[in-house]
TrEMBL record, chain A:
Domain CCZ1/INTU/HPS4 third Longin stretches: 513-609
Protein name: CCZ1/INTU/HSP4 first Longin domain-containing protein
Single GO molecular function: guanyl-nucleotide exchange factor activity
Residue ranges, compositional bias (Basic and acidic residues): 423-436
Highest taxon of source: Eukaryota
Domain CCZ1/INTU/HSP4 first Longin: 13-118
Gene Ontology CC annotations of this record: BLOC-3 complex; cytoplasmic vesicle; lysosomal membrane
TrEMBL record, chain B:
Residue stretches making up the FUZ/MON1/HPS1 third Longin domain: 515-669
One Pfam family named in its UniProt record: Fuz_longin_1
CC per GO annotation: BLOC-3 complex
Gene Ontology BP annotations: melanosome assembly; vesicle-mediated transport
Origin species: Monopterus albus
Annotated ranges, domain FUZ/MON1/HPS1 first Longin: 2-158
Record's protein name: HPS1 biogenesis of lysosomal organelles complex 3 subunit 1
Gene Ontology molecular function, alphabetical: guanyl-nucleotide exchange factor activity
Top-level taxon of origin: Eukaryota
């Protein structure tokens, strides 16, 4: 039976989102609560049966154990369960898929939804079920499709085969990202080629989320749709609103941006347009490294003057004066980055934190301690840059996101609170120095679910995509967008041409062995087992790898293992940072199963050590 | 935080067992909602209320989806495992991290196996089993549940502490010379004496064995006896351990100690007049260890169970056990036997298994049950008329035999009127001209017939319905004589045996294996295992591993290794080596011909995660594996072995493999006696 099913349908058989708050009374029909059900063609009464029974039984078990159920199994399906905010998610896969992977998959799915839509509850308040159902379907199909079974096992990133690519190209890609990041509103980015990662500055999980949108726009041939907006650069550039969790944001901000560059950026307006290019090609790298160039040169005059103020005197930063000037601006924009938290103080801190880097690189040359904890400068910054962005889709979203009907007024109030506090702090002097570092874990727990709106900016050059996570005001800031666009355009074109020339690479000479090497830190997989049907789940190597990976996950002290069935012997080894699996093809495995030291299975570790060297895998 | 629950489809609790932590958890749930001063609801009510939604949802899913829950896991790592046998739903829960899903599933299967051994074919009728497990009389129910609870606890304790119950194979005491003497004694003297005695009341001793704690000193079967399966033997050891527990915890062969654990009253023959019910043949232990250590408050609230003292049964009353018998014309599961557990000294027990005179009735009932099941199955598949009745079994043959069977039952005290009526009705419908013949309409009547047959079986073998003055078992005098004979025989060996059982073989005896820490070798064809003793307690004799934490650590590693290798075996991997921390583990499963010729490793079937547990106690995986493998070995007897080793991680792999090779090819005792 299982053999008849395609690998995809083996992976996911059911997925549903059920809103328990809609079914409270005895008379409420279960269907009222069904927000999304996959497969969509399932008869309604079966949908109701599954939703009703599973939600009910999970309730019963959760009560008995005083803890939410995270997975349940039937004879034919395993379900991962998540309950949050009266929502009930269940993702069902065939029982061959390890439970741990299903739970991971469900988390990915929910996180993807939140990344592109913000809070689930509010999304359902603001949008129709049908439109959101399409989103769920899209994310689900993204997660189910594309990658091979091995990639599913490790839920790793799809990367370009680094063995086939000139390392200089990877360096070039990294450089493009680095230079883009120097533009203040840019948090981090990644470069993708035909749905595979070339280089990324983001965590593997975040990169995976970004790739969903990329693949969608890729398949839809750059047709602007949904929340995406095309910019003045035509169809090659698009953007969409996204939402980061607090920890993701913290992670992004914990990566140091080139300080060297920042210290050089003294404000001067006479910089030539050529010098404002953020990106440098490899050829001109030698010159530009020591080159001083100014990101502020094309900022609006108002901003430039403010920046000058900052560099003139540090003290100014702590005076309430700049804040007052913002009140004078005709359209006080909302505090778009303020997390929807009732705890004012905490969210303020979060806010300050979330803008540390943007401030830092803008303010130029100041040590970060100064900026930390001081919201006034940040306020100034965001207001100025947000000036032209009142009609911005991302901003609108923020209003709704915060659930403010008369958005301007309340955000204004909130703003005043911040200002007041900042003012008093400014009077106290350099208090921020005593504050704990921003990553002390203050935002663990409930704050984790706080979502901060950001924008995903995509610049496509044929198969190549530059994806940047930028602060929402980036789009309205023509100077920055042009900056990023023009400075990376040439390099992207060059990179695309090079990558295209490499793909698809020459077919491998068939090895007499199979291996899979998983880098746990970067979440990347190197393997010489490619594509179906050899990569299909029934392949002995894939089966063994899946099983061993599970045991490595469950037993911390397990370092290596050899397992042998009648037809295959697989060796697996792992260290803190990597897992490697190795199997020798064919060769008669005739053995009696009785221990025998000349048995070929036991020479696998030595063989793996030798053979994998040429793939850049070092086993000890 | 452990619990095991059996429920009917209508969410009626048929049996429950909880540890104190779980009991408290349940009660706390009610304390919150209960008003001050109000009495907590009876525990049985609480538990059935809390589990009801789960049970009902299970039934709903089976009805409407043809699927059902097999497990739940919560975020705080509570595990619920569910399994449905016929109409009984078993739920096992663990909330303390000590048991995994596999362990819970195993526990469920073991519970079911024990119920089968205790109730026999009555388990084939859900209706009757429900009544049997949950007697109307609360006292009777409390007594029965307590017995089952203590069996379950005995099993759990053995599984956690005894290597033979870890791998589910019988461990023998290694002393070939003594073993030989004992066999001779059992054959020539004891069994012969018993079977030729006039006081045996028609019973015939088939098997006799001596247990030293859980280890088998000697096992003897008469020529007419069929082979006792490992599964049944392991269950009998649990029953014997439950009656005369050897304190594994103290590890001290101290007489006082063992007798102080409660069952002194067993020695007082006190045939209670109320014993004329189904529990007569199931002597019960006075108290279960877990409840002894309970908070008195909890004990008070604990339903009627606590208020009852189980009437101590006579020690010489045999218990009825239902075991598999293979005879010339096939396999008969759950045939009635009497089991006599005669304590020789604390820790040493002589067990006699006898065939009861009415075994033939059980065989007939089984054949009829099988016939009606086959018929029902065919009718369900849509076959009608002659297609459904075409043999085997030949329906006309069944008809005449059943007619005869009922006629024979008639004059006896067995109440067969009901069976007679249903059978007449069945015949009218099936065979008479006006009847509907063999079609779907007959299915309920097939079921009805099966229930009636199970009812007859129940009357014959579960209820002691005969007049009290007619002896129905080996007379007390005869039992005492057997006891004395065995005591005389083993008197000189007694102390030796008690020590030997703790240090059956030791790693010291294997100086040729540097770096080898532990091994277990199992012969799955005979269901026997051998392993160096693991002593983990402070008071017991020390093994080479010392006492306390180190030994405890090794023990926990061995236990987890067994569960890991089972997991791989389930997925078709028969060789596993693991480097885990400072240790190197190996596991091998292989097949040999009877002459010791190595056979090529065959494919091992891949089983789903929720399949029956791998082992020999509850469900004989290895027997099925052997059958599967033998299909390709023309007529040759195939043997199956397993070897597990634990080495120090610093030992080179080729040395480790050499060790494994030597341990696998032949295992010798230091005195050059071959083991296994």
């Amino acid at each position: 039976m299982a053999e008849l099913m395609s690998p995809d349908s083996r992976r996911c058989t059911y997925f549903f989102l059920y809103d328990e708050s809609k079914v409270r009374g005895e008379g409420d029909p279960t269907r009222e609560g069904i927000c999304y059900f996959y497969p969509e063609e399932t008869p309604v009464d079966k949908q109701e049966l599954l939703c009703g029974q599973l939600a009910g039984v999970v309730q019963c078990v959760s009560e008995l154990s005083s803890s939410p159920v995270c997975s349940l199994r039937l004879h034919r399906n395993t379900f991962a369960i998540r309950m949050r905010d009266n929502f009930f998610w269940a993702l069902g896969c065939s029982v061959e898929v390890p439970t741990i992977s299903i739970c991971e998959l469900l988390d990915q799915l929910i996180n993807l939804f939140c990344f592109y839509n913000g809070s689930v509850r509010q999304s359902y308040q603001l949008n129709s079920r049908e439109s959101l159902a399409a989103r769920w379907a899209q994310y689900l199909s993204h997660l189910r499709s594309g990658s091979s079974e091995l990639q599913h096992i490790f839920s790793c990133l799809r990367t370009i085969d680094s063995a086939k690519v000139d390392p200089l190209l990877l360096l070039k890609a990294a450089l493009i990202l680095q230079t883009c990041q120097r533009c203040p509103p840019v948090l981090a980015g990644c470069i993708l080629f035909r749905g595979r990662v070339v280089s990324t500055q983001m965590s593997p999980k975040l990169t995976m989320k970004v790739m969903v949108h990329e693949s969608e726009t890729y398949t839809k041939a750059q047709r602007p749709n949904g929340p995406s907006t095309s910019s003045s650069f035509g169809s090659t550039v698009s953007s969409t609103a996204v939402f980061l969790t607090m920890s993701e944001l913290q992670y992004l901000q914990s990566v140091p941006v080139d300080k060297d560059f920042s210290s050089h950026s003294t404000p001067h307006n006479d910089a030539s347009p050529k010098k404002t290019r953020l990106s440098r090609t490899l050829s001109d790298m030698a010159f530009t490294v020591s080159d001083s160039f100014d990101p502020n040169s094309s900022w609006p005059p108002q901003k430039v003057s403010f920046s000058s103020c900052l560099s003139e005197s540090d003290n100014l930063m702590f005076s309430p004066v700049p804040s007052q000037t913002t009140i004078a601006t005709p359209h006080p924009p909302p505090q778009r980055l303020k997390p929807p938290s009732s705890n004012g103080k905490r969210s303020d801190e979060a806010e300050e934190e979330s803008h540390y880097y943007s401030f830092h690189s803008e303010g130029g040359g100041d040590s970060w301690i100064h900026s930390e904890g001081d919201g006034s400068v940040f306020e100034e910054n965001s207001h100025i840059s947000g000036d032209g962005g009142d009609g911005d889709a991302a901003c609108d979203r923020v209003f709704r996101f915060r659930g403010v009907e008369s958005g301007n007024e309340e955000s204004h109030d909130a703003h005043m609170v911040v200002r007041d506090r900042v003012g008093s702090e400014g009077a106290q002097g350099h208090k921020p120095e005593q504050e704990p570092p921003p990553h002390s874990g203050a935002f663990d727990g409930p704050e984790e679910s706080t979502l901060i709106p950001m924008t995903l900016y995509l610049h496509r050059v044929k198969g190549l995509v530059l994806a940047l996570l930028v602060e929402p005001h980036f789009l309205s800031d023509t100077a920055s967008t042009e900056e990023v666009y023009y400075s990376s355009l040439a390099s992207l074109n060059g990179l695309e041409a090079h990558l295209r020339a490499i793909f698809p690479g020459a077919p491998d000479s068939p090895d007499f062995y199979i291996f899979a090497h998983f880098d746990c830190i970067q979440s990347t997989l190197t393997t010489n087992l490619s594509g179906r049907p050899r990569g299909a789940p029934e392949h002995p190597f894939v089966r063994a790898t899946s099983l061993l990976h599970l045991h490595f996950c469950n037993t911390e002290t397990l370092q290596e293992a050899i397992i042998r069935s009648a037809s295959s012997a697989v060796y697996g080894t792992r260290s803190v940072a990597q897992e490697t699996y190795f199997q020798v093809h064919g060769g008669s495995l005739r053995n009696s199963g009785i221990p025998y030291y000349q048995d070929s299975a036991f020479s696998l570790p030595t063989k793996a050590r030798h053979k994998l060297l040429k793939h850049g895998v070092h086993l000890f | 935080m452990k619990c095991l629950l059996i429920a009917s489809e209508s969410a009626e609790v048929l049996f429950h067992w909880t540890d104190p932590a779980f009991l408290q958890n349940i009660q706390e749930k009610y304390e919150v909602t209960q008003e001050e001063g109000q009495r907590l609801p009876a525990f049985e009510d609480s538990i059935s209320t809390l589990f009801a939604p789960m049970i009902i949802s299970c039934t709903t899913l089976v009805d409407r989806l043809g699927d059902s829950y097999t497990s739940f896991t919560t975020e705080n790592n509570h595990i619920y495992v569910l399994h449905q046998f016929e109409e009984c739903l078993y739920i096992a829960v663990n909330g303390d991290g000590e048991e995994g899903e596999d362990d819970l599933r195993r526990k469920i299967y073991v519970m079911k196996k024990m119920i089968e051994v205790l109730f026999g074919m009555v388990t084939l009728s859900s209706n009757l089993l429900r009544k049997e497990l949950r007697p109307q009389d609360t006292q009777q129910r409390a007594r029965l549940w307590k017995h089952l609870q203590s069996l379950l606890e005995t099993y759990s304790q053995l599984r956690e502490n005894d290597q033979s119950f870890l791998v589910e194979a019988v461990e023998r005491l290694i002393h070939p010379a003594l073993c030989e003497q004992c066999i001779e004694f059992l054959e020539r003297r004891l069994v012969q004496h018993l079977n030729s005695s006039a006081e045996r009341a028609g019973e015939e001793v088939l098997h006799a064995f001596v247990l030293v704690h859980t280890k088998l000193l000697v096992f003897y079967s008469t020529r007419s006896a069929s082979k006792l399966t490992t599964s049944d033997l392991l269950t009998l050891i649990i029953l014997a351990q439950n009656m005369y527990p050897s304190n594994i915890d103290t590890d001290d062969p101290d007489i006082e100690n063992t007798s102080s654990s409660g069952p002194e009253s067993f020695y007082t023959p006190e045939p209670s007049p109320t014993n004329r019910d189904s529990s007569t043949d199931k002597p019960l232990r006075g108290s279960t260890p877990v409840f002894e250590f309970m908070d008195p408050d909890i004990q008070m609230a604990e339903d009627s169970l606590q208020t009852l003292e189980v009437p101590p049964p006579g020690p010489l009353t045999p218990r009825r056990v239902f075991l598999e018998v293979s005879s010339k014309d096939g396999l008969y599961p759950m045939m009635p036997h009497s089991m006599y557990c005669l304590p020789l000294w604390p820790g040493i027990t002589l067990v006699l298994l006898t065939k009861i005179p009415t075994t033939a009735v059980a065989m007939s009932v089984y054949k009829f049950l099988e016939a009606f099941s086959t018929l029902e199955k065919r009718l369900r598949e849509g076959q009608e008329g002659s297609a459904a009745t075409r043999g085997p079994p030949n329906i006309q043959d069944v008809r005449s035999k059943l007619d005869k069977f009922i006629k024979v039952l008639g004059p006896s005290e067995v109440q067969s009127a009901q069976l007679q009526n249903v059978w007449t009705e069945f015949k009218n419908r099936a065979f008479a001209r006006g009847g509907s013949g063999f079609n779907k309409n007959l299915i309920p009547w097939c079921k009805n017939m099966k229930t009636q047959l199970c009812g007859i079986y129940r009357q014959c073998f579960l209820i002691d319905s005969g007049p009290a003055d007619i002896p129905r078992c080996l007379s007390p005098g005869l039992q005492e004589r057997a006891q004395t004979m065995a005591q005389e025989k083993l008197m000189d060996w007694k102390d030796f045996l008690l020590v030997k059982s703790k240090r059956n073989i030791t790693m010291v005896s294997y100086p040729d294996f540097p770096g080898l820490i532990h091994f277990i070798r199992v012969d799955r064809s005979t269901g026997q295992m051998i392993a160096p003793s693991l002593c983990t307690t402070e008071r017991g004799p020390a093994s080479e591993l010392g006492k306390g934490p180190v030994a405890q650590f090794i023990k926990s590693k061995v236990w987890s290794l067994v569960s890991t290798t089972r997991h791989f075996l389930r997925k078709g991997y028969s060789t596993v080596t693991l480097r885990d921390g400072d240790f190197y583990f190996c596991y091998f499963l292989w097949f040999e011909s009877e002459t010791g010729y190595k056979l090529e490793a065959g494919d091992i079937p891949v089983l789903p995660d929720d399949s029956a547990p791998i082992g020999m106690l509850a469900w004989d995986y290895y027997w099925k594996l052997l059958r599967y493998y033998s299909k390709n070995q023309q007529g040759e007897m195939v043997k199956c072995y397993e070897l597990l080793t634990v080495h120090l991680g610093v030992i080179p792999t080729d040395i480790i493999l050499q060790h494994c090779r030597q341990l696998a090819s032949k295992l010798w005792e230091p005195s050059r006696n071959p083991l296994l």
